Amino acid sequence: MTSGRAKVRLDRRERVTVITPFGDVDLHNLAEVEEVLAQVLSDTSTDATLLDLSEVTFADSTFLNQLLQTLSDHTSIARPLVLTGPLQSAVRRLLEITGTDTILPLADTAHEGLQQLRAVDASATRGQTPAAGI
């Protein structure tokens, strides 16, 4: 990690923005992740967000708060969001201890997350209500 900031990769798969933070994400280096999340919300060239947490080795309560805010922000503009793993043990434990693993839309892998987002897109196209939690 350089300059105390988290590294973040931003990709695009079809009309889905894929955000992948790397390393420890905590109070001291959350800013770059926040910037990317804000940028993605205003991007009208994509329809959904996949937040790949598989490379996050540690997360604290500030990152957890950001995840909950990200879910709220996405929900408020009807933009589907899925968080994926496989989660590192420290991240999984944080979500389990706080009970947010039952609130956040989680998929085991990026592939499964993309499938969930495609299912949401397909049901929206057919005029159906998306699956709960997405």
List the topology elements.
Layout: E1 7-13, E2 16-25, H1 31-41, E3 48-52, E4 56-59, H2 61-76, E5 81-84, H3 89-98, E6 106-107, H4 110-125
Characterize this entry briefly:
With 134 residues, the chain is α/β, with parallel strands linked by helices. It contains four helices and six strands; from the N terminus they run ββαββαβαβα.
Task: Walk me through what this model shows.
There is one protein chain. This protein has 134 residues and is α/β, with parallel strands linked by helices. The chain has 4 helices and 6 strands, in the order E-E-H-E-E-H-E-H-E-H. Strands 1, 2, 3, 4, 5 and 6 form a 6-stranded mixed β-sheet that branches. Helix 1 links the parallel strand 2 (16-25) and strand 3 (48-52). The longest helix is centred in the middle third of the chain and has 16 residues, at 61-76. The N and C termini lie far apart (32 Å).
Could you name the key traits of this structure?
134 residues; alpha/beta; 6 strands
